[in-house]
Design goal:
Elements (H helix, E strand, L loop, with lengths): L3 H14 L5 E6 L15 H11 L4 E7 L2 E6 L3 E6 L4 E6 L1 E5 L6 E2 L2 E2 L1 E5 L13 E7 L4 E6 L5 E6 L23 H8 L7 H5 L10 H11 L12 H20 L41 E6 L2 E6 L6
Antiparallel strand pairs: 1-10, 2-3, 3-4, 4-12, 5-11, 6-9, 7-8, 10-11, 13-14
Helix pairs in contact: 1-6, 5-6
GO molecular function, one term: 8-oxo-7,8-dihydroguanine DNA N-glycosylase activity
Protein name: Formamidopyrimidine-DNA glycosylase
Subunit structure: Monomer.
Amino acid sequence: MPELPEVETTVKGLRKTILGLTIKNVWTDLATKDKRQKSSIANLKFFVVFKKEILNKKILSVERRAKNILINTSDGKTILVHLKMTGHLLYGKYKFHPSPTLPLTRGGRRVGSWIPSEKGPLNDPYNRFIHAIFVFSNKKHLAFSDARKFGKITLLDSYTAHQSKHLNNIGPEPLDKKFTLEKLKECLNKKPNGKIKTILMDQSIIAGIGNIYSDEMLWRAKVNPEQKISKLKDKEIKLMFKAMKEILAKGINFGGDSMSDYRNIHGLPGKFQLHHEAYQRTGEKCRKKGCKGIIKRKVINGRSAHFCSFHQKY
């Protein structure tokens, strides 16, 4: 799942490309009767309302909250996009190909597929799962590619967006200047019996951190992923705080992690996966200078953790 650096990379890209543009049309082939998605564009009734509300609206700003992308439009509406497991947004020129075997429309929506109209990285195989398209006033498109169709696109009132059910139970942003060492301690102490790997990924405790970056932070801070919060030493928390800031900034500097599906808005992979010290390095020698350890993998509360057998002992 894209984490804070991948979502931040996407937001930065959107700020450079779609600000000031007007939405002229929107399309999706997502369709479900699952009540859990009644407020997403995968629900036909919601999509009808969604389309009506955003047509001819101008893009005013784009922001990130945890792993959510917030596209703020004129008339006080915010399009919220959550990439979930395999989603990413792509910007460029696309053309529509009607299905040769299916009806022209289904539920009022054209049936077919969208493909890039120009050669380039948008043609990367990971970018071919297009399930939503926004058409802009400059004749270009914002495409939502999502292989597993777990992603979410919904609409909120801008003035109350952060109080909505989608955003109201999220912890503080770890790269915020107000996120100090004392704030980290305060957050961790909310669940003193929790294991640090699990707590770092809890979005109600700290925003935006997932499997990849929690592994890398803990490796750098020399903290075992199974260590209970109540057993952490003050020195370890200080090292974690420093590692958290550094690793997340590094992830953004390298354009995110593309070990899996993630691509930036131009269809290009990030490069953080080339700099892993722990994540997905099971069985390999630890790269920490002077360390004799081997990277091990262990499932903790249903999630994989990668750590050094030597310098992350507890």
